[in-house]
Amino acid sequence: MKHRFTKILATVGPASAAPDTLRLLHEVGVNAFRLNFSHGSHDDHAKSVKHIRDIAESIGNAICIVADMQGPKLRVGPFKNESIELRYGSTVTLKLGEGEGDKDTIMVPHPELFQALEPGHILKFDDGKLQVTVKSNDGKNIKANVDVPGKLSSRKGLNVINTVLPMSAMTDKDRKDMAFALSQNVDYIALSFVQTADDVKEAREIIGDKAGIIVKIEKPSAVEELDEILKYTDAVMVARGDLGVELPLERVPVVQRQIIRKSRSLGKPVIVATHMLESMIDSPTPTRAEASDVATAVYLGTDAVMLSAETAVGRHPATAVAIMDRIIRAAETDPEYWDYFRNRRLPHDATSEDAISHSVRGIAEIMNCKAVFGYTASGSTVQRISRERPPCQIVGITPHQPTANRMALSWGVSPLKTMDPANFDEMLRHIQHLARDYIGLEKGDKIMISAGIPFGRPGSTDTLKVATVD
Q1: Cα angle 129-132-136, degrees, rounded to a multiple of 5
Q2: CATH superfamily of domain region 345-468
Q3: CB count in 10 Å sphere of residue 47
Q4: Distance from C-alpha of 364 to C-alpha of 370, rounded to nearest angstrom
């Protein structure tokens, strides 16, 4: 088994939905697939889920599937001539309604905006390319001054800067999509445009324990309430697209670093997403800046990096994955990559689980252990080991397929579904077999085993054994 610590999450789309292409993407490095519910039908997504599960079963590997909800994406309405020209210094009217706009009027079908906006608030259109400042709001008409001019086309996106809107992170479409995704047994549900922790709590009531929750941080209000939001989510995505529109560009790298550090400190997988190898939508090679961007996320300790349009609609999906794999491996062979984890202290709970996971790192360094095998029911113990970033492979062993699938998104973890052993001696024999045949270790290699005795009882991890491969 070729081992890489940082995982790759790839988006499925027209360029990659064919079964042979999905299999190729997995072979060249994809650990998890993202289904973007902003596009495609339920039937399309159901076919993708089936193809991915068939691939995983045929090769005996766990693959994570993330269903990404569209969320309350704000858009302007249509225009009579498909677009208008916003002129610098002119006044434009945003009108509440569903009709067509004209050269001086932009129709906006979102009453929440008219409830929240006040003079001085800033609006951006088309991924931040155009900008206006609110002058007045009578509840049905907003007068705004054009600060950044340009062409505004029908149904382009709209972002409200530094304002919490009175709306849920889930639309009626999201609820229907979420119910469908759960019926397909996806592993994670990703929530878009989360503003507060209440948005995550609302989703949890629907999802329960049927899937993990990934919170996409793409609103400044979510950044401000990050600590509270992290309490209720299972994983985090740094969604730099909309985040880069609503925050000053120079703040995005700073916020990215903060989110990665806080997520890892809590032992929750974190994904860096958007524009990572954007030029590869058309080009067979990325820019040097893009390669550096991926490497920076790896050096910061992210669990996974994500490809969006590169694999969904790009001309070179498999090449994009292969190049991302090369960039990650290059960073992970740099000694300074490991120095960063060694020098950064993490908070620890007074539990046997944290004591064992913390010890794994030190033992791996001192004894040059090649792998740690962690028995887990829920995945929590293996995730705590993963957050320590030990310099050895982590094999997450579980009798539950959903747990194995979710672990495929965690740094350094090679998930394996297999029945719990009957006793300690059987466990040792089983581990010897896995060490030789599953990950290709050699006689004399040092390994560690983390488990709870008796087996199969969640939250009972109390044993750490060092062994030698026979």
Answers
A1: 160
A2: Pyruvate kinase, C-terminal domain (3.40.1380.20)
A3: 16
A4: 7
236's CB contacts (< 8 A; 6+ apart) are 214, 215, 217, 230, 259, 263, 268, 269, 270, 271
Residue 332 · residue 37 · CB < 8 Å:
no
Residue 285: other Cβ atoms inside 10 A: 14
- The domain spans of the chain are 7-72+169-332, 83-161, 345-468
Is domain 7-72+169-332 given the CATH code 3.20.20.60 in the classification? yes
Model's pTM, two decimal places?
0.93
Give tens-digit pLDDT for 149-207. Answer: 999 999 999 999 888 888 888 999 999 999 999 999 999 999 999 999 999 999 999 99
Distance separating alpha carbons of residues 143 and 80, to the nearest angstrom: 20
Q: Each residue of 320-331: b (16+ CB within 10 Å) or e?
A: bbbbbbebbbeb
pLDDT in tens, 8-20: 999 999 999 999 9
- Considering Cα of 447, then 392, then 26, then 42, what sign does the dihedral take? positive
- 248-281 pLDDT tens trace: 989 999 999 999 999 999 999 999 999 999 999 9
β-strand partners of 190: 68, 214
Name beta bridge partners: 133. Answer: 122, 145
User: In angstroms, rounded to a whole number, what is the distance separating the alpha carbons of residues 413 and 409?
Assistant: 8
| 83-161 CATH | 2.40.33.10
Q: Confirm if 271 and 304 have CB atoms less than 8 A apart.
A: yes
